[in-house]
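It is worth pausing here to work through a concrete case rather than discussing structure prediction in the abstract. The textbook approach is simple: state the sequence, then state the predicted structure, then interpret. We follow exactly that order.
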Amino acid sequence: MSLQCDFDESFSSPVRRKRKADGELDGISGPRSHAEADAWVDSTMKLLRDRGLREFGVDFADRLLQALQPGTGICMRSDYSGLGGPEEAWWQIAKALRLDHEVITCQRCSDIDAAAQYVLLHRSKASGCSRSCCVLGDIRERCSDGVLQALESLQTDFLAEANRICARGNSGESCESRDAVYKRLGKQFVKDAFGLLVQEMPVMPATSSAPDQVQVPCLSHNRSCPAFPSPQQGFSGLLCSVAGIICYDFSPMGAGKRFLGNSAIPFLIWARERLCSQEDFFVVECVTNFDDETLAELLADSYQMHTLRACPSLFGLPVTRDRKYMVFLARRSLVWCDAVNSVGPQEAFRKLFARPVVMRGDELLRAPDAAVHDFVSSLAVARGLPESGSGSVAWSCYLAMSPANRQSVRDHEQSLQAAGFAEQAAVLTNIAQRASHMGPVLSGFAPALLRSSLLWSFRLRRIVLPAEHLELQGYSLWGNEERRSVVSDVLPSLRSSSLRSLAGNAMHIQSIGSVLMFVVSCTVRQQ
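Step two, the predicted structure:
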């Protein structure tokens, strides 16, 4: 079941249906301004306290604060880190709760993308829990060449078999669909490949001082560092990991090769590492089509999986990004508390966090006029036009755009007006896609961001700036200075295409932050 709120799309702004959500019953709605959206940690703590007491008889906010005390706290590692979404979420939590810097530590992050590495290296120089000590690159560097070659050879064989069966299907000799073929053979490849990894990759020791600890190239220190550094001496809190694994092979917009795609081998190495690294819990984010049952089967002896479905609209935000958050609790150390077990984690999550949306997506656009002007000027210059129009009047965004993009805007405007909306309705659309395929999002929500998204605001008559894509993902770039993201000062040095790509791959900060707060406050140590 999706936890994305429903809206009547026959109006130019979000209008709630008569069916009332939990949030409407207790009078708590989603944010009414971008400033309120920035303060999501404060509102989440209120929900954990008030709804926790009302629905479960438990003050989950107090439980969270007790878990985030000096000497306990969180020690985290992240992979497929992108912009550092988990680090950003913990940083925002620590800022809002005024936690001691040592309570939440991020040992290391990793990503194969060069632009992501650039941002993560900037984070590594920051202070507080947003900082990752080590920045690693390609996950495959943590596996020997011989094992990699064996995995690639095995996958090649399965792919060849999949292609043969699909070719027979095209000629009418097989009734099995392409998706069914890739699903069936992909699951078998995962089983065989994981067995190979278990046999060939040794279980890594828990402490970095052990002589056979795996060492990998670290971009932050320009030397080899432990793949799994040990927590600081005396640490008695929760050791965890967070990963936003590559979704391209499972996304409806992607290749559809599932576990036979290019992302499978790094994913399997990452999964094998979870058995080696002895974390108390880890969280995996991916698209809703991801085969979480297969992952659960691989790790079933050591971890119990609980999948949460969540979208930013669940928290009252006018943003579309429906995702699976797979929570793995170590059987040796963590279980859900009785209150959560009584209804199940998915229902408990909904009861604690669900709120109605009262804003429109384009109300989250707050780039300063100067930033908009500079962006529009850059569009004009890229087309060989002067920085300003005739008479030194600033270009409109529409005129500064390429002819192809202007045509796309016109096509989307026709779809908008055909649906009965005004030309400048409070609606966002992705003009990088055909209007006939993915037209304006008439609910008023911001569309789900892709790596190539080019959002257009009909009301503002302009392109949504690449940095605003990050704000739609929960990064505060122009809000209260005290809570402004540590990546805000490094973004101007990135190309617009890189920013859009990073934003399209990013985790939504409030979504992953709420999942982490839920896990820490709602689990107990195994007796």
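Step three, interpretation. The two ends are 32 Å apart (CA to CA). Residues 1-20, 204-212 have pLDDT under 50 and may be disordered.
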